[in-house]
Design a protein that fits this description.
Rossmann fold; 10 strands; globular; 17% strand; 255 residues; 11 helices; 2 domains; 43% helix; binds D-glutamic acid
Length: 255
């Protein structure tokens, strides 16, 4: 039985889970839905490392084979430390800057405040011309998506005000997994941009890992959510069931 642990501050990482399921990775997905500490984007490195450690511990105690940190912010702040502390494969998500820069010239990078100022992104940008990259101020966008997923009009107004000035750009990088849920809106505001998400890269790495470790996948997939504040609103659970076309169970957080 393959068990894949997944972490995010909310629904964002579900875009990665859906990507894995759609790509045929049949597993029991155990999803730490960290609504206790949402949003991550404005937190400090110290806070994020403590959160990452706690959530990893929870997944390891549930016997997962692989962990996917389905969050750019937590990957940026803590993945290197996590890999030193835990002896299981830990796969992170990183903004798809390289593939985007391979085919586009003027690029909008959408990410949380932490990811934008993090060392990981600056290292990734080394060697590229600085003037070709644009970073809209999207301070609380992950929070807005998390709490207004059905209010497309509200999100559209917010995004129009932040993105419409980039009509000359031809590429756009989604540097936060929550943003996968607003691709349709981005496309209406900036129809000319080619959009790059990190999901495909993660799916590829999970497949490699399964092969290297000779892990066998399951006959079917199952998803179990562990909400860290103890509960998940029924409307959100139903949204995620619809989104994944899967039944989802909700489990208690381990104390
Ligand atoms: N989905 C996350 C990310 O990819 C977290 C966003 C947040 O909680 O601020 O960065």
């Amino acid at each position: 039985m393959l068990k894949i642990g997944v972490i995010d501050s909310g629904i964002g990482g579900f875009s990665v889970v859906k990507g894995m399921i759609d790509a045929g990775i049949r597993a029991e997905y155990i999803y730490v839905f960290d609504n206790k500490y949402h949003p991550y984007g404005g937190k400090s490195k110290g806070e994020l490392s403590a959160i990452a450690f706690m959530n990893l511990n929870m997944l390891v105690s549930r016997g997962v084979d692989i962990v996917v940190v389905a969050c750019n912010t937590l990957t940026s702040s803590s993945i290197n430390e996590l890999r030193k502390m835990f002896y299981i494969p830990i796969i992170g998500v990183e903004p798809a800057v390289k593939p985007c820069a391979g085919s586009c010239i003027d690029i909008v990078v959408m990410a949380t405040p932490y990811t934008l100022k993090g060392e990981k992104l600056s290292n990734m940008l080394l060697g590229y011309t600085e003037e070709n990259f644009y970073y809209p101020n999207l301070d609380n966008l992950a929070f807005i998506i998390e709490n207004n997923i059905d209010d497309r009009e509200y999100m559209s107004d917010y995004l129009t005000s932040r993105l419409k000035c980039y009509s000359k750009c031809d590429g756009l990088v989604l540097g936060c997994t929550h943003y996968n849920f607003i691709v349709d809106i981005i496309k209406t505001i900036l129809p000319q941009v080619k959009i790059f998400s990190s999901t495909e890269g993660v799916v590829r790495r999970v497949y490699q890992c399964i092969k290297q470790l000779k892990l066998s996948t399951n006959d079917d997939s199952a998803i179990c959510i562990i909400p860290t504040n103890g509960s998940l609103p029924i409307s959100k659970l139903n949204y995620l069931k619809n989104y994944t076309e899967m039944d989802i169970t909700v489990d208690d957080v381990d104390i």
